[in-house]
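Issue: ligand-bound run for magnesium ion - logging full I/O for the record.

Environment: standard queue, default settings, no custom constraints.

Inputs:
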Amino acid sequence: MAVAVSPDQAAPSSGVTADGVTADRATDDGVTRFSTLWAQTLVDGGTVAGTVAEVTGELEPIALRLAGALAEDAGTAIGHEIATALADLGYPLTEIVASTVTVLLGDAVLLTGHDTGRLRALIGAVAEGLAKVASERTLAEQEERQQATLTAVRASEVNRRTTEARFLALFEQTAAGIGIATTSGYVIEGNAAWAAMLGCTPEEMRGRKVMDLVGPGGSPEVLTRYREMLAGECDQFRIEATHRSLDGRTMDLDLSISRVRGDDPAQDFVVGVAIDITERKKLQNRLWYEARHDALTGLPNRTLFLERLAGLLAGPRPPVQFGLCYLDLDSFKSVNDGLGHEVGDRLLIRVADRLREATAGSGGLLARLGGDEFGVLVEGCATLNQVADQVLASLVPPFVIDGRELTVSASVGVVDTVTATPEADALMQAADISLYLAKSRGRGRWERHDPRRNALQVTRATLATEMSSALARGEFFLEYQPLVSLDDGRVRRVEALVRWRHPRLGLLQPDEFIEIAEESGHIVPLGGWVLRTACQQAHEWHHRFPDAEVGVNVNVAVGQLYDPHLLDYVRDTLEETDLPSRLLHLELTESAVLGDTHGPLTVLTGLAATGVRFAIDDFGTGYSNLVRLGRLPACELKIAGSFLQRTPGDEPVNDKILPAIISLAHSLGLTVTAEGVETRPQAERLRLLGCDAAQGWFFGRPLPSDEITRLIAEPSPSVF
Ligand code: C2E
Ligand code: MG
Ligand code: MG
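Outputs:
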């Protein structure tokens, strides 16, 4: 601890004489003790960090130097030297001046014997040195700091310039259009991309009113929102919009407009970024289009149709009234099966064209809903029937494809939101039910949904799912219609016609379910059952009336002809029922065997080898391909009933065609049966034309087997 004493009072501590003259050199011990006292003072005063021992160690060399200075007259330079040494130790010079001087005054005697004058001079030199070095060091530090600040400022300047240059490059070279404008609506700056989008140069737009540049071609929504932003209603908006440039180009833009706020509202500005998304939009539109259109006909597809339907249903309240026509081509399958899918596709394209024309005026949406199904969505209910009429009328003129005339009709289910539940599923189901009704009532017609017809709430899909269990439960049965010989009026054969006694719907005629059976694949088991039942029955008649030689005609659908097991099935059935094959005639429709596809021919040849005969059914309603007719192993031609109907205007034509067909068939070695003979004059005329047999209500309706048995047992006298 330093003792505050004046130099005059300093008490000698070792080897000090009474006159104050001490020995020349300090002892090591004295230097250490001085250093300790000095260190203690500095540490206790809180000016130097560290322990007393550490600081003592640091101060000892300096104390030694002080001792030396006291021993020989060191001059003032010593003060600077000591101060520098202390500054180098990191001691705060200005703060240690007082305590250092105090220690020197009090305890310098420990260092050496000295005279007071020299001590005073030393203390003065040290004090001055400390002050001087302290000030030198402060200056140096300040300079250093200044230098560092200067360097930092320079670096930040360089940084700023680099950033600016980068931003400028970005601004000028980016594909995005960037424009900066005042909040009063004047362009401050715009890059080349934006200028190109607007249809001018960056120089031309600087200082111009934004509205003059974007106003003429901007979308109204963008302009409204931009004005709202200028009025302070929002700070930012993003929008996709179509823009027309000043030079007349149209493009799709993704626009992002922001108001950038400064500390002072007067310095606010508006930044707009525009990205040209025309190509992306085009791609998006194309993908959207492809997902919602039918590739074959180019019409909207089921997805788009159902979306529109959902859109109308979700529309404003009270909802708009609308309706739809659900159209299905009649017997389109036979075109595909008979003439091949390529012809089928071309026919569909032509049908679509006709429908497009027919519905153009209705403002409705025409769509292809599936294979041969089309839909028309019409707003308002008043014109629905008219649309259905026009659609049907448009299909009446025959289609000419590859020089071949094809006749197509359609059945249409019509439904509206007033009478049916206005829900998508309910509407489609109601339309399907009405379509089914149109089919079962004779095709080529439309039926409007009738909510009172609830009992008949059955769709084609329901019937299809019920078919196999119906077969197992024995709901199908056969009736037989006589084919009568025109020369003696005797029953030569009977045609087996299937019926369905449906538990809910009552008696269903084949027109109501054969097509469904074909489409759903049930025709193979159903047809198989018909064949077996008819053969069993024919065998029974043959067994009871061996001389009557009554054969049975069984209808075979196209789907059965493509069944690989058909040949075996027919062979097995004949064997198991023990029916002579000559008594079985298979009726094949024209479309199945006279078309362009060759598939069935092999099967027919195989079947012919078993001895069964073929009849071409409904001749004249399809392709009437006479060349092919000659190549088939057929033995009978059944002329469609329509040839007998004498509609005014058709008479001369039909009058000529009928005899021509009969004589042609005879020349090909075929017997001829006329179908749909309803009157005596028709029967009479056919007989005179040399037609071999006839079938129709005039001779007998389809009857249960026991009534046929009676007919065979007791032949009625000739009707002629
Ligand atoms: P289809 O083979 O041409 O059979 C003759 C159809 O004409 C029968 O109708 C018959 O009732 C009807 N018909 C008979 N005489 C007259 C007449 O004088 N005037 C009129 N207007 N019609 C007459 P049905 O029983 O309704 O059968 C319709 C069609 O269903 C049949 O036409 C046939 O193509 C098909 N079909 C019937 N049973 C079967 C079957 O077991 N299998 C297959 N694949 N089709 C069948
Ligand atoms: Mg038939
Ligand atoms: Mg027929």
